[in-house]
TrEMBL record:
It comes from the Eukaryota. PANTHER family: PRKR-INTERACTING PROTEIN 1 (PTHR13507). It holds the Pfam family DUF1168. It comes from Cairina moschata (Muscovy duck). Residues 25-41, 142-153 have a biased composition (Basic and acidic residues). This is PRKR interacting protein 1. GO terms for molecular function: double-stranded RNA binding; protein kinase binding; protein kinase inhibitor activity. Residues 1-56, 116-155 are annotated as: Disordered. Residues 124-141 have a biased composition (Basic residues). InterPro entries: Prkrip1.
Amino acid sequence: MAAPSAPRPPRPRKEPQPLVIPRSAAEEQRLRLERLMRNPEKTVPIPEKLNEWAPRPPPEFVRDVMGSSAGAGSGEFHVYRHLRRREYQRQDFMDAMAEKQRLDEEFQKKLERNKMIAEEQTAKRRRKRQKLKEKKLQAKKNKLEQKKQEKGQENAQLQWQETELRFCVQEIETPWCHLLYTTISFHIEINMKNQTAAVLP
């Protein structure tokens, strides 16, 4: 008599999952992703891309040639019907391929046309930005030149005032004139330093 086998351990019970009915395609996709991420080590079957249907190539040698002789059997009509259906499928496939090729060519032409339009618009905007940049540089240059001219005129005026003041001091030799000359010269020097600091960037 065989010895009694050991009792089999009970299987671990799976936790009951709540029933969730997706209300949209995004929610359904989220539920699928959650179910896949519960066990990341499990392999996921990825379906291969289906090949595009193509008609069967014509045979190299046709054995059963249908003729116009009398006495054809009743099964010849069905053979003819299958051949006709296959020929119609082949013609439809050729028309579909020609239409696809035409659409692809139109799409490529449209892409090239849009690319040319975008390049023209980019070049136009680049020229506009360059013109504005040159205009700003020219305005800045003119402003600096104008400041230099104003500074030169003020310096010439100050030098003329200083020369006139020296002539006055030479004409009238008094302590009061010397004090006035020293004070005005000091103010002229400070004014010139402030103007130079303002002009320099």
